[in-house]
Each structure stands twice: as C-alpha cells, then as structure tokens.
Amino acid sequence: MSELGFWGFERPDGSVGIRNHVAILAVMDNVNGVVKHLAQLVKGTLPIPVWYGRGQFGADDVLYRRTQVGLAANPNIAAVLVISLERVSAEKVAAAIAESGKPVEHISVQDIGGSVEALAAGIRKLIPMVEAASAERAKFVPLSKLVLGVECGGTDTTSGIAANPALGYVADQVVASGGTVYLSETSEWMGAEQVLVKRAKTEAISAEIWAAVRRIEDSAVARGVDIRGANPVPDNIRGGITTIEEKSLGAIIKGGTTEIQGVLDYATPAEGKGLYVMDTAAPAAESMTGLAAGGAQIILFSTGQMNIMGNLIAPTVKVTGNPRTAERLRDNVDVDVSPMLQGETLEVAGRRLLEFTLSVASGRYTKAEILGEEDIAISRIEPTV
User: Fold this and answer.
1) Do the domain assignments include residue 105?
2) pLDDT tens profile 147-169
3) Does the residue 330 lie in any domain?
4) In this structure, are 345 and 303 located in the same domain?
5) pTM surpassing 0.90?
6) Handedness of CA 292, 51, 236, 372 (dihedral sign)
7) How far is residue 286's CA from residue 184's CA, in Å, rounded to a whole number?
8) Taking the alpha carbons of 276, 277, 278, 283 in that order, is the dihedral positive or negative?
9) Which residues, given as ranges, of the chain have pLDDT below 50?
10) Domain boundary among 105, 135, 165
C-alpha cells in the first residue's frame, strides 16, 4: 500500500475536512422550516435542523450549545449560516463557531422581518459561501489528519468476532499513523470496563473510565432500570448474544488495542492524538452526534443485524460480519467482512476496510449518504422547562 492518506480540504484551524459542506444551522427548532427551505433553494448546502433549543438551563444548555457549535465547527463544514428566531442566540452561536476560523453568517428571523425576508437574506448570504466552497480543491494529506469515530448497532454474534475486530484493525492503523480515534457508548463498556482501565495511560484516566460507567449505572438504577439485567437487549439476544460481558468485550475491540489517552465529555474534541473514549449514550443517533461534534470526520459503524442510520455531518461506513445481512440488506452495507467467518484473516479484512475508509475520506459516498439516511440527535439530561 502506498503512503497512507486521503484527499481533503484544509481548514484555518489546521484540521482537514473530507466533505466541503456549506451548513445551514438551526439554533432552535422553531426555525427548522426556514433552514430546510433554504437548503432546497440553494444547491450545495447542508441543512442541520434541531429539536429543542429553548427552555434548557444549566448542564443541558451547556451540552446543547457545545454540541451545536461542535457540529458546525466539524472539519467537514466549509462555512456556516446560523439561523435563529432572535438575535441574541444567533450572535452567540455564530461567534462560537467563528473561533474555528471558518466563514460564518447569521440571521434572526424576528429581526429581519419574518420567514420570507429570512429566505431572501439567507440566499444572498449563501451564494458567496457556496461559490467559495465549490472553488476549493482537495489536497492529499497524511492519515495523521484523520479523526475516526467507531460505532456499533444491531449487534449479533458476528459483530464481536468479525466486524468489530476489523474496525479495531483500522483504528490501530490510524493511531499508528499519528491520527485520532474515538470509542463511545459508555454503557457498552459495562462488563468490560476492567479491560479498558488496564489500557489507560494514567491512573487518573482509569479512574475516569470507572466513574463514567458507574455514573451510567447509578443513573439507570435511580430510574428503576438494571442495565446489567436488561442488557443485552432483545435484538442482541435474537442475534445470539448471551451476556452483557460478551456484548461489551465484542464492542470495545472496535476501538483497537492501543493505549487510551483520555476520557472525553460528550461532543468534546480531543486535544491530542491517539485513542480516546467519549462518554456518550448508547443509541446510535446520539452517540454519533457526539462523535461528529467532537470533530470526527468519518465514522465506521459495525452492524450485525443492520442499523441503517448514518450521521449527517460525518460520513458513516456500515460494516457487517453477518453473511445473511450482507446479502439481504446489501443496499445498506458498505463493507462485508463476513469472509472472516470462513477463514479470511483479520489483516486481509482490516486492510480492505482501511482502503474503503480512505476512499470515503477522499470523496466516495457511503450508502447512508446516497440514500439520505442521515440524522443527528443531541443528548439531553433533564426535561425542558
């Protein structure tokens, strides 16, 4: 294999995007209509509608805004138009995004005169943004510029013995090349947390891993749920998973085998290189949103029985080790590593997946992108006030 790298778009902050979207970001859900209409009117734009955005306080408000700004600041975004109902929030979010160095404009629907005026003004602001983004040309950059997120869903017995090890192979190659990898889904560490803590760079990081798992379990118990008794969930059991330890040991290997450099809060970028664990909820939409808001340009998603969802910002590669899924749901599968069940080595399967990952990083579309099966969901802590 030639020098490991990909073709991407350099950003002012030194990061590299694998897509060159001009994003239209809704600050709150009551302007989603304007955001969606603008994306229909202006070619080359990516709408980012949201749910909620008002009546959130304390930790929820911090989490929500950090995630929004992180999504817009993701390297895959070339420029951003921020849309809000009123001026204060529009200016606040736009100013935070501008710290990444990328072009940002904002519109307040109330102050500009309503939906129709917002559409007109939005089109005029978006035209030069799209022109500039379309004029950029990708450059070949080393693999050290990649931030990779790893995810799993629809887990079955093939996940832990084929798909997840293949993801882990790619993760190790990215780290070895000087890149960054995020392993998320905190409840998926439960039952295997003792393995993760042994790989932590410091005792403090080990303590943070223990604390993250304990916090998830205590929160569930406080609401009358026994995660260790309820996990694996019914679709996992249907796929042949018998215990939470079996599921978690299979899940953590998708992050590879290298030393853990730190524990990241949800939607928080790493400050260094190597493997990090991100404290996120397990559902794919929320977890992948946290990964993308933390700066992941691409996500590898292993799925035994198939979860079709991709992330709106970070192209999502669906990988299966189940030969029945590879055939029956082939329209959703990007990479089939089920030959591992018949003797294909981890290195051969892993290199196939790495080559596909680099092709996606260089512009190839994933099935989720082609089919438009992409979304985001920002995690929440408390009800809206």
Assistant:
1) yes
2) 999 999 988 889 999 999 999 99
3) yes
4) yes
5) yes
6) negative
7) 10
8) positive
9) 1
10) 135
